[in-house]
Amino acid sequence: MPANMKAAIAGAFMEVSKTKSVDKITVKDLVETCHISRQTFYYHFRDILEVIEWFVQQIFEEVLEHRTSLNPSEDTLRTFIEASSEADILLQKLLHSQRREQVEKIFVNAVRSYLQEMFARQELKPDLPVAEAKVMLDFCTYGIVGLLLENCGKKSLDKEKLTRQIQRMLSERMEGRAPHASP
Question: Which has more pLDDT, 71 or 133?
Answer without folding.
Answer: 133
